Every structure is written in C-alpha cells, then in structure tokens.
Amino acid sequence: MSAEEVKVAITAVNPEMYYSKGGSDLSKFKKLVDSEGVEGILKKYKEDKQKDGGYTFPANSIANYKIHFDSQQSQLEPIYYWLLDFVQDAGWTMEKLTDNFVSSPGSGHFSEMGQKVALMQDKGIKILADVNTVIKSVLNLIYDLKEFEIRLEHYDDAKSKDPKKRESGILALKQIWLDNVDMKRGRGAIHQLATMEMGYTTLREAFMVANNQKDLENMKSEKGGAVINDQVYRILVPRLSEFLKWMDYSEKEMRKRFSIEKSYLKSQIETIKLYSSWMKPYLKAAEELRQKGFDGNAALVNAFSTSMFELTLFGKKEVKPDPKFGDYKLKRKYYQCIVINLKYRGHVSQRVTQKGDYGFAMGGRVDMDFDAYSLNEEEVKIIMDKLKNQDALDSLKFSGDVAAEALEELREDLEHFLEKKEDKEEKKKAEDDINPFTALFGLFKKKEKKSDGKKKNIIDIKNVKKDNFVEKSVRADAALAASDWLYNVYDIYKKAHGMASSAEPFENADEEKTKEPNV
C-alpha cells in the first residue's frame, strides 16, 4: 500500500469533496464508484499507473503542505517518532497505513535484512512441518473414533430393550467376531468348516441364530426339528461361550480406548494451537521484512548502497456539533483527519566503531507530505477495510492460521467428539423441552444473534447516507480544524528543527470545503 492509494480511497468514498476535476469528469467518476466500488477504483488506479509511470490521480485534500530536504546526517527514524509523538500527545488517534522499504542488492542493508528474513522463514517452516504432522495425526484419530463409535453403537443395540434392535446388534457383533477373531483359527474357523467340510453346512447359520446354550439344545432336539447334529453342537457350545465373553471384554476395552483416544485428540488439538502460536510471529516477521514498494524506481541502482523507505500515518480526532445546535445528537461521528507521508531515499552503509561493534550510518533525502481531510466514521471504516483488503491481495502474505483453517474444516467432528457430556445433556434437554415459552424466548435469542451479525457487516459505500444540515456544518468545522491543525504540525516541526517558517498560516486551505452550509 502506498500513500497515493490512501488518497485514492478517500477520494472514492467522497468524490464531491475530494475529486479535483469537476463537471462531466466528476459525474463519470461517481458512476464508476457506484459500479466498481472503492476496491475497483484502487484496482483501476494501479492498472493505469503501471501503464504510465507518470499517472497522477485527480485527488485533492482540504489543505496540503510539503517539506523536502537533503542531508548526509538525516535519518528517518527520529523524524517519524517526533511527528507520531507530537500528534498523539495532542489527543489524536494515529494508525500506520504504509510501511514499505527496498534496498539495492549491493548494499549492506540488503544483506542484513536478507539474513534476518532467512532466519525467520527457517524457524517458521520447521514449526509448520510439526503442525502438519500433528494435523495428520488428528485426521487419523478422528477416523479411528468414528470407527469406534460405529462399533459401540452395535454394543448399545445388543443391550437394547427393543427386540429388533437387540437382534440387529448381536448379529452385527457375531459377524465381526467371525471375521476378525474366529477367522484366526484357520481351517478350524466356522467360515472354513461351513464351506469346506462335509457335515458342517449348518454351522454358521446355527451360530448366527443361537444366543445361548439353551437355543443350541433346542436346535439339536427333535422338538426343534433336529436342525443341527451332535458334531455341530459340540463345536458351537464353546464357540458361543467364547463369543459371549468376547462381547463383554471387547466392549470394555473398546470404551476404554475410545475415551483414551478422545483425550489424546484433545491434547493434539491443544498442541496444534500451541505450535500455531509459536509459528505466527516468525512468519509474520518474515512477511514484514519482505522488501516491497518502489517498483521500477530509477533511484535504485544494483551496485549502489541505496535504501528507500515509505511510511504513512493516518490520524483522526472527533469533532462535536457546534453549541448553537443545542442537544442535537449525531447519528455518526465526524472526524478531522490528517495523512502524513514520509519518503526517504539515501544510503545505509555498514560501519565499524572503535569498540569493534557494527552499525549503520544513514543520510539522504527526506520528502514529507501533509494532507488534511474531513470524514465521518462510516467513510473511515470503508477506507480502512478496503485498504487492508487491497494490501492483503497485493502481498505474498503466508497465512499464519494454517492450523485454524484445518481445524475449521474438522470443526463439526471435533465438536462431536470433544463436546462435554454436560453440554450434550443440556442440548438434549433443550431439544426435548416442549414448553412454548421456552421456545419463544429461544426464538428471540436467535433473532438477537442475527441482528448482531448484521452490525458486524462491512458498510458499503452505497449505504452511506448524505449529510443533513447539521452534519454538513460539523463536516465543515472538522475540515477547518484539520486544516488549522495540519499547519500547526508543519509549522512547529520546521521551527523545532531550525527551519525557516511563515509568521502567519498559508492560505492554501480550500474555502469551499471549510465553508458553513447555507440555510
């Protein structure tokens, strides 16, 4: 993001006040803003600037002051902090919008920053690899827990009072026992005997039907139709007893393992969060140390020891209605705003002191640009949101919330397995509650949540209402106050640093923007 983009965004939210070209050009621009929005205007500005490096956007602030000087002892850091502290101490809220820097490949500053970036990236990538390993572990755990849950449902059905459910659960468990436990006997397994040995064709069917030894005796007796013979009976008696014991022991072990794996899943989730908190600072620092801005600038020569910096500060201070309007309460706040842009071009060369320690000597040209604006809180919110979105699109920013994104995809499964028993009981109780008053209160709660969600939505420029008479007056007061304060910053800075200044304020404020509205 550059200072020019900040001015473009301000112009887009209020073209009538800040678009310098009037007449048909203004009408065309307003139609373009209505159709494309602020983001579309910013995109078009960048495209036009790339086509023609000398492109200037027709933006016009309320007042503008500039300071340019070149000194071999000048440094940007003390200038930046002098302005920041001076304005903040006067009660302004300041926000840094632009923080760009570039160093030529031949400079010592380039090497120093490159080493720092490489170190941050290396540490961040190592932690990211650990995060990915734990995420894979979480996926496997969720898969296992789903398998356990399906199996445990069979055990619950086998104990159900409903005869059909109970029969379904027992049959499912018998099939699992035959496939996974009894099958290990090889040729002696029930499956093998029933298909390969003569005289045992009824073995599998009898096992699936019988639930205890009495059922087997009935099948063997003549009253039961003598479905099975003595050979089958003698094989099924111990096998059925073994199955019943397995069903009891396996359920206990399954529930124990299910509980352990749920606890392990919780610890893995906490590990992911911990790794993510460790990883974010490194990746964020690596991104912030990435060189950006000043693309194609002729001042950057590869072999020179040249560095360029750009910093933009946005300040706002609320303005109250004039006492002549009595107790009138504004529906939205109005601010006097200033934009301070600092550009530095110079050399940052490495030096060694007498003590043997290393440092950087700086010196070069500083360009300071001061602009004043008058905006309401809706306009400020749109400007900030769109500029941040644009900055995110432009940068190669790596998402530090990789873990959060992965967990979001698994949120439903995690809530299902990690939800507390008390929460589940309360949820079930709420679902079973047929009290009409409870349902009515619940309906109101849902509506309140929806209304809260609407408040959080980003305001679109089309929804910003025009100023009424009082708001126009407050905006004019804000414009005049911003213009006066901007001159104070400019004038006091020059005097504090031994520069020549004017005895009286310059008459460069736009009178149309600071004039009170007509009745």
Compose a concise summary of this entry:
By secondary structure, the protein is an alpha+beta fold.
Keywords:
519 residues; 5 strands; alpha+beta; 17 helices; five-stranded antiparallel β-sheet
Q: How much helix is in the residues?
A: 55-70%
Number of strands: 5
Quaternary structure state of the chains depicted: single chain
- Give the percentage of residues in beta strands: 5-15%
Report the mean per-residue pLDDT as an integer.
79
Description:
The structure is a single chain. This protein has 519 residues and is an alpha+beta fold. The protein has 2 domains: 3-104 and 300-514, no CATH class; 138-257, no CATH class. It is 59% helix and 14% strand. It contains 17 helices and 5 strands. A 5-stranded antiparallel beta sheet has the order 1-5-4-3-2. A hairpin with a 5-residue loop joins strand 4 and strand 5. It is elongated. The two termini are 41 Å apart. Mean pLDDT is 79; it is low at 434-456.
Task: Please outline the helices and strands.
Elements: H1 3-13, H2 15-18, H3 23-51, E1 63-71, H4 76-89, E2 93-103, H5 108-158, H6 163-180, H7 190-196, H8 203-209, H9 213-220, H10 230-288, E3 307-319, E4 334-352, E5 358-376, H11 377-394, H12 402-409, H13 411-418, H14 421-432, H15 436-456, H16 469-496, H17 511-514
Antiparallel strand pairs: 1-5, 2-3, 3-4, 4-5
